[in-house]
């Protein structure tokens, strides 16, 4: 066996060694402070490291397995590990002398990692990690080594190598995505994932899944690589990939330290708008119990709106990174996995996992896999193992793009096997819940006779069955009330509602929510008319009465015309006062007044003439009857249009007057009619939608049908299909719950007793008693107490004490 090189006496003394060992930590600090002065010591230790390295490599080459070998000596292995760490610490200060040192460490681990002792492997790996963290060597050159180190069976080394790979890639993408580096590392891991060696492929899959879960690599390439692992030859790799795809939505967010790689994500809070009147009533009106109920109702409304807004923004939000969403060929993935399921001889649990992933993919991407539903039909039996999970997968695979004829045999199988009089109540409730969920996605499957039969189960004495039947009834009150008999329809929101036919699509012809903006503008215009012209319903009724007299007496029309002309002239003067600002505007307003006065005089002359009086009376009667029945403010609207036309004619001669007129009108609906909306309009639409949702959440007690996109993104839980009815507790069980809730609470004491046991300082009331009062205040207080005592004595002497017994 080769021996270590002999050390000269001067080098031993110069390096600060004792009789046998080098003091490496002190030498390391000295070399960092003065690198040039300790170059000889560096070369000495580097030579010792190389010689030990050669001995270990020769042992590996000769397959030396004797217990007397160099690997059996723990001191030699420890010295080699200490020198490796020492050289890794001083490498930044000696870049030329130690230029080949990182590559030597990598080659040493690649060639002889399996034959090294566990402690030495960990020390060498830590030295290499230190070099990578200081950017002396690139992670692209060491990723393969660290992935192989995880397959050696050393638990400490596997944990160290895995955490190093994860944190290095996260740190690399912390500020911005390093796409060239990411692609190189992904190609390495993708190649390892496709290898037939199970250990390497599994570690590569675990690394990819962890990076995807931490939202470091959430691109399409990583997602597709994880999904393609479902077709690996090894069943363990397939099971790991399937379990990750199924449990991805259940994974909760990590701590803030784990989410450091997702700093670019915008933190959007859900917008909640509630009625101010409801908030005021919940806090200030009513008794304490009623306030409590109102506050609870507000909290429920807030929670429901938060949930709806979270579900609506789930697809657009950056927090939704399920790998199944990023499949490039979802149809091919589902067909390939279904063919493997049909030819599989694995356990039932593995088949169920494959079936769930297929159903999730079909529902998420609205795929058409017609052979899948007959395959499910074979297992739809009440005594089938995990039948609720199977039914949940069947529900998940239903969507509005599947032909109803393909799902109808499965639907009938569920009804015939679960919902009949001889079935158990648990099976009936599960069957009704499954029917409800399938009809929520495909309402065309339900027929009128079948629905009426199923709804009759709401009269069952079993609470689970009756609640499931009522939920089906509530669904069809919203979806298609015509299938129900008249007494079961209740008060639906839309009595003429019907489900969409197969293949029917509603194409949006306008911006969603623009009708809310137009309605709000219309309401604001009506408010503006009432404020500007001061028109009331009493005036309208008086005018209508005056016009009604024109049939009997012709003078009534003259009075009405005078009233109209007077009101219109007043409104014109008001608009002129608003438009005062320049000489041109004054001229325009004067012209407008003159034009309008001429028009009014013409109308009065026509009314005075006997030839047109009858025609005018009849037309005015028809107009007032027709318009007054629909809008009580029709007079104000007529005046507004008349004034607007006059001003428009006058404003056509001046650009400034035209701009003034456009600003004074403030009609936002004219902007929406041309199809051009500003950012303020979109923000207003968002606020109006939130207000509408708040109004419906506070007033709605029925069932709101979700859209097909919401149903596809939502995962169907098998637990919701089962009957979760609370049983009535006995008195002993209730008392146990009460006592369990009182364990953490202290013993009951009166408030005075708790004040007496106070351990802190004095209360504010006690401090007021000790406060030094001014002399005048003391005298006033004494005088006040003297007067009160005097009055008390006077009242006590006059008090009736009853007749004495001896009189």
Tally the helices: 37
**Proportion in β-strands:** under 5%
As a whole number of angstroms, the C-alpha radius of gyration is 43 Å
Helix content range of the residues, please? 55-70%
Give the overall pLDDT as a whole number.
Answer: 74
Q: What kind of assembly state do the chains in view correspond to?
A: single chain
Describe this structure in words.
The protein is mainly alpha-helical and 807 residues long. It has helices at 9-14, 24-33, 39-61, 74-90, 101-112, 118-133, 139-149, 155-172, 179-193, 198-213, 220-228, 235-247, 276-284, 288-312, 330-342, 348-365, 372-377, 387-396, 404-418, 425-441, 448-455, 463-479, 514-533, 537-548, 555-578, 583-608, 613-630, 634-651, 655-665, 669-673, 679-699, 708-713, 718-721, 731-741, 751-756, 764-769, 775-798. It starts with 8 loop residues before the first helix and ends in a 9-residue tail after the last helix. Residues 1-35, 511-639, 745-807 are annotated as: Disordered. Required for 60S pre-ribosomal subunits export to the cytoplasm.
Structure keywords:
single chain; 807 residues; mainly alpha; 37 helices; extended; disordered N terminus; nucleus; ARM-type_fold
């Amino acid at each position: 066996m080769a021996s270590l090189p002999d050390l000269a006496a001067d080098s031993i003394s110069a390096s600060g060694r004792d009789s046998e060992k080098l003091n490496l930590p002190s030498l390391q600090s000295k070399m960092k402070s003065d690198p040039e002065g300790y170059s000889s010591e560096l070369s000495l230790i580097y030579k010792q490291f190389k010689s030990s390295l050669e001995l270990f490599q020769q042992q590996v080459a000769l397959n030396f397995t004797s217990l007397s070998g160099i690997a059996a000596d723990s001191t030699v292995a420890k010295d080699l590990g200490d020198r490796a760490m020492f050289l890794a610490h001083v490498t930044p200060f000696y870049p030329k002398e130690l230029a080949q040192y990182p590559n030597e460490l990598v080659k040493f681990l690649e060639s002889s990692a399996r034959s090294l002792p566990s402690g030495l492997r960990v020390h060498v790996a830590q030295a290499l990690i230190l070099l990578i963290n200081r950017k002396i060597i690139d992670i692209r050159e060491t990723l393969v080594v660290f992935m192989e180190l995880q397959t050696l069976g050393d638990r400490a080394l596997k944990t160290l190598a895995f955490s190093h790979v994860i944190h290095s890639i996260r740190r690399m993408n912390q500020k911005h995505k390093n796409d060239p580096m990411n692609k190189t590392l992904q190609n390495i891991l993708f190649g390892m994932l496709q290898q037939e060696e199970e250990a390497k492929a599994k570690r590569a899959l675990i690394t990819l899944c962890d990076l995807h879960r931490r939202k470091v690599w959430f691109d399409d390439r990583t997602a597709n690589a994880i999904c393609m692992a479902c077709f690996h030859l090894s069943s363990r790799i397939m099971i790991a990939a399937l379990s990750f795809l199924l449990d991805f939505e259940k994974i909760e967010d990590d701590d803030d330290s784990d989410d450091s790689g997702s700093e670019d994500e915008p933190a959007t809070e859900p917008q909640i708008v509630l009625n101010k009147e409801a908030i005021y009533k919940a806090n200030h009106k009513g008794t304490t119990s009623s306030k409590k109920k109102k506050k609870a109702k507000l909290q429920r409304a807030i929670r429901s709106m938060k949930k709806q807004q979270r579900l609506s923004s789930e697809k657009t939000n950056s927090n939704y990174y399920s790998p199944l969403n990023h499949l490039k060929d979802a149809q091919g993935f589902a067909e390939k996995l279904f063919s493997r399921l049909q030819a599989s001889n694995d356990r039932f649990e593995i088949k169920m996992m494959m079936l769930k992933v297929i159903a999730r993919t079909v529902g998420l991407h609205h795929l058409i896999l017609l052979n899948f539903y007959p395959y499910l039909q074979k297992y739809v039996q009440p005594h089938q193992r995990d039948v609720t999970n199977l039914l949940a997968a069947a529900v998940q695979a239903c969507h509005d793009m599947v032909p109803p004829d393909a799902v109808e045999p499965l639907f009938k199988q569920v009804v015939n096997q679960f919902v009949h009089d001889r079935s158990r109540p648990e099976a009936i409730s599960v069957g009704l819940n499954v029917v409800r969920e399938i009809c929520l996605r495909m309402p065309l499957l339900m027929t009128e006779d079948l629905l009426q039969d199923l709804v009759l189960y709401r009269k069952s004495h079993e609470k689970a069955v009756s609640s499931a039947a009522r939920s089906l009834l509530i669904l069809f009150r919203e979806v298609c009330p015509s299938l129900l008999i008249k007494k079961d329809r209740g008060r639906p929101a839309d009595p003429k509602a019907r489900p969409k036919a197969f293949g029917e699509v509603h194409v949006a012809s306008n911006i969603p929510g623009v009708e809310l903006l137009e309605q709000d503008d219309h309401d604001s215009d009506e408010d503006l008319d009432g404020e500007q012209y001061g028109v009331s319903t009493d005036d309208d009724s008086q005018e209508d009465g005056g016009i009604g007299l024109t049939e009997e007496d012709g003078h009534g029309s003259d009075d009405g015309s005078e009233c109209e002309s007077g009101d219109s002239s007043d409104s014109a003067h008001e608009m002129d006062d608003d438009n005062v600002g320049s000489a041109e505007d004054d001229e325009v307003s004067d012209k407008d007044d003159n034009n309008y006065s001429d028009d009014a005089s013409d109308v009065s002359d026509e009314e005075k003439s006997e030839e047109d009086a009858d025609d005018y009376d009849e037309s005015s009667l028809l107009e007032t009857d027709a318009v007054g029945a629909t809008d009580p403010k029709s007079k104000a609207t007529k005046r507004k249009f008349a004034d607007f036309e006059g001003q428009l004619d006058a404003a056509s001669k001046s650009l400034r007057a035209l701009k003034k007129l456009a600003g004074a009108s403030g009609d936002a609906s004219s902007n929406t009619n041309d199809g051009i909306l500003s950012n303020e309009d979109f923000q207003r639409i968002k606020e109006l939608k939130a207000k509408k949702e708040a109004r419906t959440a506070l007033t709605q007690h029925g069932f709101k049908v979700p859209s097909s996109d919401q149903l596809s993104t939502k995962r169907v839980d098998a637990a919701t299909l089962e009957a979760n009815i609370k049983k009535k507790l006995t008195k002993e069980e209730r008392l146990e719950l009460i006592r369990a809730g009182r364990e953490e609470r202290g013993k009951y004491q009166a408030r005075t007793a708790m004040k007496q046991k106070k351990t802190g300082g004095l209360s504010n009331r006690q401090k007021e008693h000790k406060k030094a009062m001014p002399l005048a205040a003391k005298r006033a207080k004494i005088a006040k107490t003297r007067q009160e005592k005097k009055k008390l004595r006077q009242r006590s002497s006059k008090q009736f004490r009853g007749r004495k017994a001896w009189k």
